[in-house]
Amino acid sequence: MSAGIDLQNVCCDFGNFRAVDNANISIKPGEFFSFLGPSGCGKTTILRMISGFIEPTAGSIKIGGKDMKGQRPNQRPTALIFQNLALFPLMSIWENISFGLEVRGVDKATRRAKAEALLEMVDLPGAADKMVSQLSGGQKQRVAIARALAVEPAVMLLDEPLSALDLKLRQHMRAELRAIQKRTGVTFIYITHDQGEALAMSDRVGVMSQGRIQQVANPRDIYNNPVNGFVASFVGENNIFAGSVNTAAEGMAGFDTALGPFRARLGELAKGGNLKLYVRPEHTILSETAAAENSVPVTVSEVSFEGAFIAVHGKTASGQTIVAELRNDGSATVPEIGTARFAHFNAAHAAILPDSTVGA
Amino acid sequence: MSNMIRRYGAALTLLICLLTAFWLLMLVIMPNITLLESSFRPYLPVTEIGGPKDVYTAANYMKVFNGDVEVSPLGFTFHLPVHVLTFSLTIFYSVVVTLICFLLAYPLAYFMAKILNPRSLPTMFLLLFVPLWVSEVLRAFAWWIILALKGPLSWALVNLHIIDKEVRWITGYNGVMIGLVYTYVLFMIFPVFNAISSLDSNQIEAAEDLGAPWWRIHWRIVLPHAKPGIASGAVMVFMLSAGSLLVPSILGSTTSQWFTQTVQQWMLDALDWNTAAAYAFLLLIMCTLFVSVVMKIFRVKLSDIAN
Amino acid sequence: MYKLRQTLARVYAGAFVFYMLIPLVIMAAAAFNDNKTPSVVPWKGFTWKWFEALWADDRMWHAFQNTLLVALAVALISVIVGTAAAILINSVSGNLRSVLYGTMISTILIPGAVIGISTMIMWTKMGGALFGAEKPFPFIPGLHLSVLGQVSYIAAIVMLLVLARLQSFDQGLEEAALDLGATHGQVMRRILLPHLYPAIGAGAAVAFFQSIENFNVTQFTRGGADTLTVYVFSKVRSGITPTINALALMLICVTLALAIVYEIKRRRSASLEAAREAEARRAAALEEAVI
User: Predicted ipTM?
Assistant: First the structure.
């Protein structure tokens, strides 16, 4: 039923522009895999190459171990869910869902039964004879999923399908998509620029930038152990310090900056080049007294209330802003603007990473 | 093209290209090339076609300059070849018809676009479309009835004591002009209406707010905005008028002659197809020149006119 | 002052509609006047006899039949060719597109007489070149040449209508269908053409009426055959009776009836669509409440 996908040295050029550069990745059968990156990073091109709308310039794509070279979209065991869903507006819901069966010559009664069963599964019973324009955004979403599932694909490809929904519904549909994926066991390949979506739903995430895959890992590792500055910045906020490594041992390193010496984990790829120290605002602590290490005196310059947390901005003597996030659970006292504090962080929570991307 | 093959497959792409090629080559380009070629051939008996006399010549075009007539517009007297006169008068009266159509259509188009309640618009369109659906020949015929010497117009005016004797309305080019304006004014209304509709009413209100008088609002804001629509309407009305054969034939007087009628006489009465081709080609050139001039003056593209 | 201008505009619009419709009313009314020349004055009494005369006019019926056949043929060919051309224009870009598009729409601006003469000359000359003096069917004058001549510009009108509709088409639908396993033929039949049907239908109607109207092209290509327009024209020139008025009234009634039916259908489908959208909004509100 579900199949794995192997991309080997896949490249894609549009004229002089290299949209995808040497992508190597192996996606396991039944996995929920997300490609995450800003627009223009090549993630949609990868999706369109897997679905067969674009032929790779070089490299090979295998689905279930079978090379897909020369196979047209209608011959591949994939089903694509489009960004705008691309539901057929002139067909009823059940005709939409059973279209893939219709073109395979399945008889009407079977198609109808299958459509009803799929509607049941996506929690839309009784909608079979409605038209697309009668449905809400979330309902259309479900129909699109049912339509893709109807052809029993080995791989489902989803191109930012939730981007048209409003925030609340989007969060609700994340859970539902995940549940459907687990229920059907089909390999899901999900494209998004929303890191929250990718981290919340996926088994593994591939972060992309400028046509290159930067890092492939599970959501925790992507967030906690990013391999470079791009990944660290794309999936969350950071306080960033420029400097250079002086000593390194057992994965930890001393790091000299204009604000004094720091100590932090040394990233795997941090081997020469332009290195910076990254630490997340939620790992940055403000206290009235200086800490033993990684401590910088700051003056509180701005306090912004964000709901679940409070972001406190502190300015160092050199003018750099350091942000610390306090949880809004009453445990921390919020400092007044203008008061002096020490910003510090645990060396295990900070990482020294190359600030350039892979391949740049 | 590769995009097309990807979308529709090779077989369908080929079919689509063949159908379009049939239209453009067999129905448009080839006939016009043949027309041009024929216009340079002499009119010969069947037996001599392909013989030594069948050589290319501009003689057919030269026939335009045969047979002078005396004309005296504004007191000046000229001698003009009769077909040159017909040609010039056709252009002149077509331009006049175009101007009258614009003057009639502009206020109505503005009314429909900016004053009329949008909910009444479908009804208005329905009323205006009725004459458009009735064929041209019947519209000309309707005016033939109205303008007859003892017809309803004379009758009404006599009974209202506006005139005391029936009037012969169809003299000179009067009947032709009346018929052409009535028949083609709708082709001016719709493009001008479309153009004015797309003008943001706030612009008019802003101008009013700044104290502009109504005529200046039209001159400075509405008219410039409606320019593409006016160009499109002007081209349509001019082409249809200059190319009309029905209206000048039905509503023409003994002294009116339209260039298309001259072409028709060569083709169907004299059976001299080659000269007819030459004259038809002159008509085509005249129309092409007019379109180019209008496009230059109004600075619009051909694609704007088609819309 | 403002009010005055508004009132003037209304009066003008009223007068304009009057000007547009009164000739048709007079023409229609003359059909019932018992007077040998078609007119409403002097009124010599009400009669149905011109309708009876029309019914008995074989030449008119023959012309009517010809007109319908020509119009159907023109509508059919124009729709096929115009739709294909619109798809082609929509798929190409750059210079090729400009040249093709320019050639296509320039046909609308070619005078009918030129189209008629050029079509006539080309087909007969081609027949002469291929077969000598004894030319077979498509190469002789006749209504089939009228059809070809009319198609040459009516196809452009259809093309513009279909192209406008194509531009609102989401190419993603084609890709979605391909992705679900449809062949190119199935995509065309099930996805693209259904989307284009409203424009194709409108194109067919416009082509049909344009063809019925056509005089210039027909006049130069018809050979000896009559269409309704040619017939009416010859009647107006050579002694006319109010049978033509009876015919005109019937044509006006038919077109009006068609227009009203069309308008009713349009309103129905608009209200149906509005009801569907209202349902979608309700569903969205419900969804929000449930989450």
Answer: 0.88
